[in-house]
Amino acid sequence: MSKDRLYLYDTTLRDGQQTQGVQFSTPEKIRIAEALDALGVDYIEGGWPGANPTDSAFFDAAPTTRARMTAFGMTKRAGRSAENDDVLAAVMNAGTGTVCLVGKSHDFHVTEALGISLEENVENIRASIAHLTAQGREALFDAEHFFDGYKANPDYALECIHAAVDAGARWVVLCDTNGGTLPSEIAEITRAVIASGLPGDRLGIHTHNDTETAVAGSLAAVEAGARQIQGTLNGLGERCGNANLTTLIPTLLLKEPYRSRFETGIACEKLEGLTQISRMLDDILNRVPHRQAPYVGASAFAHKAGLHASAIVKNPATYEHVEPGVVGNARIIPMSNQAGQSNLRKRLADAGLEVEKDNPALPRILDTIKEREDQGYSFDTAQASFELLARKALGLLPEFFEVKRYRVTVERRKNKYDRMTSLSEAVVVVKIGDEKKLSVSESMDESGSDRGPVNALSKALAKDLGPYQRFIEDIRLVDFKVRITQGGTEAVTRVIIDSEDSNGRRWSTVGVSPNIVDASFEALLDAVNWKLIHEGAKP
Amino acid sequence: MSKDRLYLYDTTLRDGQQTQGVQFSTPEKIRIAEALDALGVDYIEGGWPGANPTDSAFFDAAPTTRARMTAFGMTKRAGRSAENDDVLAAVMNAGTGTVCLVGKSHDFHVTEALGISLEENVENIRASIAHLTAQGREALFDAEHFFDGYKANPDYALECIHAAVDAGARWVVLCDTNGGTLPSEIAEITRAVIASGLPGDRLGIHTHNDTETAVAGSLAAVEAGARQIQGTLNGLGERCGNANLTTLIPTLLLKEPYRSRFETGIACEKLEGLTQISRMLDDILNRVPHRQAPYVGASAFAHKAGLHASAIVKNPATYEHVEPGVVGNARIIPMSNQAGQSNLRKRLADAGLEVEKDNPALPRILDTIKEREDQGYSFDTAQASFELLARKALGLLPEFFEVKRYRVTVERRKNKYDRMTSLSEAVVVVKIGDEKKLSVSESMDESGSDRGPVNALSKALAKDLGPYQRFIEDIRLVDFKVRITQGGTEAVTRVIIDSEDSNGRRWSTVGVSPNIVDASFEALLDAVNWKLIHEGAKP
User: Which of A165, A485, B94, B452 would be a feasible disulfide site paired with A515, CB 3.0-4.6 Å?
Assistant: First the structure.
């Protein structure tokens, strides 16, 4: 049986950016676009060129992708031609091969929000789509409020989308803009649209999660015949979010009846990167990943109930609907120490430390990790700090030097031009063997800008480590993440530092303290020690 | 038209407790049971008496509720009578009028997990349910893995649930234990069960969220004829959670076709307490409430896109599927890069600043916001900093005092017990009118722990503001969030501070700088200035 092709349209960079508190920078947008492209989505909606500076900058710098890069905008306004609408012109000027324009299809919105006649609105849709196709662009029409519009005035809603198709739109996307339409209504109305003469392979579905049914609504539309799904990674989006592609993609690829009936642009083995992509997005947003997220959450394959856990040991299929490894996730059995130890040995081997099965250090390491994680540490990403902790328990951690004390001063005052400026200064005192070394640095970078106290501290620590100096000269601090792990006044700060050296080696370390400078210093120290070990330095 | 009665069965205290990281205390269970009862659910499943000490203690102390308090357990084991099964006896001993027993209905699980014959399992179900009804208890049978079981062996799955009904079970609950069954399959199989002679008003549905369709699956079962829904508050539960009653309840009460077709035990006006109940549960669990949660999330009615915000001002129904007040939530129009002028005016009005449509300050404010957001600021959440920025542009920001300079020192060294300890000290110099004031504070809290440089700075700033001191004494820093907005060495730190005063007023401010101490100081300053304005302080 030949499979129907389903198209996946990602709008993380546009509708996802409508999430309260989310504002991507241009480099962040580029990173996300590259990850989406590597995954294999068909369309990447990059933003609304002209609507805000970051979106315009993104299209100027947009990476070359296999996926169709799409600019978003709105249909031309009444009273001017498509050619003379400056908002539409800015969208066209982004130069993408595909353009998606949103327009009204609900009579109430035409009269209430736009204040124009129903005929004028249809003409705006027609003229705008015709303008796109005349320019050789692939055109999508996002029919805003389509379902509410259809319920209020089915003839008018259909007239709007037929106008778009007649003008050359490749896709008409049925948008449940307010997120209030339930899956059974979505199915029914999608069938009615197809019955009106619009083929399903030109229909897309765009849902929101206001009733927690965005994923189910998308599936219902596909079952009714629609062949494009719009959504976002991690379900980001306006209000309660959009349909979650991080959930929909594995459901479509792994589960029946979809798996047998459809094919997408995503190869099954790409799913193994899904958990990582989801976490990367949370990292960019500095959000705590949602533990209970389907497929990719840390708890998605955690079996806590005693009944479940014991059956899982016999046969994982007893309590798992898919195999966790397929989506790059892992099974967790919180109660099972045995599972803990074999996991740990696997992880130690990854760090080059082969430890036998009954080594008494293994339970000690597990205890230390538990205790530290209770304090706010996280060793999931901070692989290098995990390795140092394990080495210590295994007696494999040399003491290269000792930090006797440090002091950082942050000062803000007026400079000679009467402008407020800040400067930080750090003093670090270390003892190497019998020798005491005092180093001092300040936080100014080459351009004369203040980079803050952690920068000063990092420079002072790495300034003179005597015999080790040659090993650490090429360490570069490439990323620095701060997270408050407990709310309120008892806040504890977790700092994760990513370092890199001239061999392109990259490692992550963690520090935790109520004092952010201390937490940073702990992570910096781990970074230096890890590097010394891997350079083969001898104390 | 007479309405069908739908029954709501809450399992927050049992399946909800299977959430990784969740363990309720007995008093917490009592608080939650009381809230559920006040809301008006029909059944409260309190736990598994005998399975763990808290559950047993809860039933001993359980509050008297209008809702039917239900004890959970499992069907008797093979090779002993229902009367002689000690696990079942512990469940009966809780003395609840209603008892729910889980049992197998999937042949694979009978042979694989239980290791007994298919006939023995049917007999265990029959004998256990008969035992409950003989004791005068209302009996529910949770048919574990029912949907997977039906797909594998429909006759056997049906035999199991018919045995329960024949033995007197009031309800048979079709459980999608692994959460892998999609809504259309749930509908189809539920219809098949009804066609087999089991009436819908004796059928319940119990779904999990492993494909993000637990809510839709419950609705599909109801559309197919089931009349009891099992779920949890905030969608707590094993792995990805159970069907979310916090979403299902307003959908059933407010939205068509449910609103016209069904009645529940929940009065419509009780919905106004829903947001509060959801937050109370998060408080108990010390979790940050999920902003994007349907109906009750802080972002559920946040309109960020410029197009949406301008229409909302004209008529809220344009972008809201229900009225936020009905579920005890509120509309938010956050300020951001995306926003247009009408959005801005609405937001200014929320802050008590009525500004006319063509005030030339409006585009200036928008420009400033855009520029600042490019630098890493975010005004979505930092409402108070937004207000100060707007007041400045409108000439409505008095200068209460001027910060001349500050200095913070962080020192780490050995104390007299030879342990490394840290201490921060801050000096802040302000000018109030012609008077210069120097204040110094350190970072030690009452317990002698170091709280870090920002704490010291905050204390020094608020130590002596002369004539303003009485207005700011009750400011309390309740939350502190740090985010690095650009990766790499050019990292810029964004700090968001939540403050609170003795009136319970809460406000958020933001600061941005490559220097985390500077960013924090900026947010602290905004917090103090906002408070002075709202106290009516005069310079």
Answer: B452
Are A484 and B484 an interchain contact pair (Cβ–Cβ within 8 Å)? no
Angle at A432 between CA A428 and CA A435, to 5 degrees: 90
**Element holding B231 (H helix, E strand):** strand B228-231
State which residues form the domain around A430. 402-534
- Note whether residue A384 is domain-resident: no
- Could you tell me the pTM of the whole model? 0.76
Under DSSP, the state recorded for A232 is B
* Of B133, B144, B96, B423, nearest in space to A319 by CA: B144
Interchain contact, A514 vs B450, CB within 8 Å: yes
Flag if A235 and B481 touch (Cβ within 8 Å).
Answer: no
Q: Tell me which of B266, B295, B329 is where a domain ends.
A: B266
Count how many domains chain A has.
2
Indicate the pLDDT class of residue B491, thresholds 50, 70 and 90.
Answer: low
Q: Is A377 exposed, middle or buried (0-12, 13-18, 19+ CB in 10 A)?
A: buried
> pLDDT tier at B357 (50, 70, 90 boundaries)?
confident
With CB atoms and an 8 Å threshold, state whether A410 touches B517: yes
Cα distance from A354 to chain B (closest Cα, Å)?
A: 31
Question: B37-63: buried (b, 16+ CB within 10 Å) or exposed (e) per residue?
Answer: bebbbbbbbbbbbbbeebbbbbbeebe
Name the A residues in 294-353 with CB < 8 Å from any B CB.
294-295, 297-308, 311, 314-315, 318-322, 332, 334
For position A491, what pLDDT does the model report? 66
Per the domain annotation, does B274 fall within a domain?
A: no
Are B258 and B209 found together in one domain?
A: yes
Could you say which of A266, A287, A313 is where a domain stops?
A266
CB of A470 less than 8 A from some CB of B: no
Q: With contacts defined as CB-CB under 8 Å, which chain B residues touch A418?
A: none
The answer to whether residue B381 is domain-embedded is: no
Which helix H or strand E contains B410, and what residues bound it? strand B402-414
For A213, the closest chain B residue by CA position comes to B216
Does the interface ipTM go beyond 0.85?
Answer: no
